[in-house]
């Protein structure tokens, strides 16, 4: 994704007419040694800070379709990152450098997002807006003076540009779609094996449980009391 943003910025500056006037657009680190080797007017677009925008981290996902409109993969949601650039110009005179910076600034502030026709690769496939802010840098990005000090070069007029771009999610290939109906095949009984060899369950005779032992320790049931006749006295 980062190199695709670089290419979009390069195309945007080329459309402004920089290359037709003999100005080079590079993405090198503007160190002291690099600056000493400059012999032609140059606009340097240096990327020095990359941070994720956690507030835009979403859930869910999307589907990837083939030419026939079938789902071939499922993609996790994209994650957004802030890419902060330092843009400076090199020329023979400070006035020429300021003129180049003015031309670059006029090109960048004329749009709030990178035009879709300049996007390539995954940025073009996602079809999402790639925001561009030429008025400053991220809240946590290092200051321009700290960047120049870390590079070991002399402080020069520069533009802080921030691009908010999506990083495509991870795609997982799905199973092939079902294109045939359910097929049921029957097998003749003769091909299923010997029916006599089929194992069957056998049940043995179940006997009633024996009575539990009484208080006297005998398992036999006590005899039923004899019935008395009417009028017979009990001995």
Automatic annotation (TrEMBL):
<feature type="region of interest" description="Disordered">
    <location>
        <begin position="186"/>
        <end position="235"/>
    </location>
</feature>
<dbReference type="Pfam" id="PF14065">
    <property type="entry name" value="Pvc16_N"/>
</dbReference>
<dbReference type="InterPro" id="IPR025351">
    <property type="entry name" value="Pvc16_N"/>
</dbReference>
<feature type="compositionally biased region" description="Basic residues">
    <location>
        <begin position="226"/>
        <end position="235"/>
    </location>
</feature>
<protein>
    <recommendedName>
        <fullName>Pvc16 N-terminal domain-containing protein</fullName>
    </recommendedName>
</protein>
<feature type="domain" description="Pvc16 N-terminal">
    <location>
        <begin position="4"/>
        <end position="176"/>
    </location>
</feature>
<feature type="compositionally biased region" description="Basic and acidic residues">
    <location>
        <begin position="196"/>
        <end position="210"/>
    </location>
</feature>
